[in-house]
Design goal:
By secondary structure, this protein is an all-alpha fold. It contains 6 helices and no strands. GO terms for molecular function: protein serine/threonine phosphatase inhibitor activity.
Length: about 120
């Protein structure tokens, strides 16, 4: 029986070694993404999304779990005119009791010049 117990251990090691070989394709995909999307654009978008998240916490003055379901889609906003962007943001923030104009103005200023993303990075 002791000989049989060592066999599954050997099989596990073989399976583990074959799993290491599957790590190469994701690295290649990452390389394609950094070529397709300018790294500066990605960082700017990430900074804006973090700013939005922080501002929403201030506006709604609550913890993450208590935040209302609210999704501000930057790409959706970029498809709209300035007036439509402002209107869409006011519609999304209607449940917020605090003044929203500073947030809306700040967001509209930050997304100026940002390009719409298409493809795999858009959720």
């Amino acid at each position: 029986m002791a000989g049989m117990a060592s066999e599954p251990g050997t099989q596990s090691r073989v399976m583990f070694q074959s799993a290491d070989k599957t790590e190469e394709p994701p690295h290649r995909k990452l390389g394609k993404l950094t070529v397709k999307y300018n790294r500066k654009d990605l960082q700017k978008r990430l900074d804006i999304e973090e700013w939005i998240d922080n501002q929403l916490h201030l506006l709604f003055d609550c913890e993450e779990e208590e935040m209302p379901e609210l999704e501000i889609d930057i790409d959706e906003l970029l498809e709209l005119s300035d007036v439509e962007q402002r209107s869409r943001l006011q519609e999304l923030l209607q449940e917020c009791g605090k003044p929203k104009e500073d947030f809306i103005n700040g967001l509209l200023y930050r997304i100026k010049g940002l390009r719409k993303m298409s493809g795999p990075l858009k959720k």
